[in-house]
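Researcher: We are triaging several targets before committing to wet-lab work. For this one, the compound of interest is zinc ion. I'm pasting the protein sequence and the ligand SMILES. What I need is the predicted three-dimensional arrangement of the protein with the ligand bound, expressed as structure tokens, so it can go straight into our comparison scripts without reformatting.
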Amino acid sequence: MAAFPKSKVDEYASACEGCTLETRADLEEFQLKRLNELLERVSGRGLYANYPSHLHSLADIANLPFTSESDIIEHPSQLGMVSQSQCVRVISDETSATTGKPKRIYYTQADRDRTARFFEIGLQELIEPGDFVMLGFPESGELGLTDLIEEACRRIGAMCYVAEDEACYAIDQMAMLSPSAYIGHPFHIAALLDGLATRGIAPTFTRTLISGDSCSSDLCEAVASAIGSYPFLHYGSREIGLAGAVSCHTRKGMHIRENDLLVEIVDETGNPLPDGEWGEIVITTLMQEAMPFVRYRTQDRGRILPQPCECSSVMKRLDDKIERM
Ligand SMILES: [Zn+2]
């Protein structure tokens, strides 16, 4: 029997697919089927006009062109695969475009539901029914990240509240409400821990999940020393539907939701790298309906951990030291 409980990402995949993907061979066969369904759907359309509709193996994906942030900014209509009326949420990022054009990412209800399901199951690594959870994220708008996490906590049977941005107010709130767990952005928890240390107050929460940006080893250690347990980490981005990969109880890397995402690591010339080597994270969103990406260059530098996890999950892990390139 494994020393650690199996990652919740495996449970998420089973819940979505109605079957258990027990081995890498099962999972990769499943991914190839999904990839071909995606190619069938997008091939001949918009930016994917010249893409094939079928590949014989997962490795053949290396022959396809990449998509990039500038494709989203310059040709959004060529990446959308449903009508505007089928989209329930558009995230518009005005700041990322160097050209002054916004970067817009579209989701259908099904896209959003899949992310909500991932958060509901993934958060059960650390959230239990009856928990009271402090959320420390910047305002993300209706149907945004905070809304999704609030919904996930509710489904688990936990209550939550959105903490004040300013650490001094967040500390007063914490003292009043005594949250048992914390989910938030690294900047928020760093400021909160600083403020708590200055005022000589101990955190009331004993479990944390940090998401929204990469979390340094120093911050992870500071959290562990303040609350007595190492944080769980999550990797996601708007392009991949917000949810991507999350720590299991080993806290060694983050298991990728590989039933939904095909992750590659490539070198600076775009050649695929083996597991264990550092390069750019490239992601194909196998299940996104509104705006699926084939080989999206994330501009995040990372690697896939080469060994299977001690928790016995079939899902590969991203090293949690991810950096913007
Ligand atoms: Zn694991």
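Researcher: Any quick observations?
Model: The longest strand covers residues 87-93.
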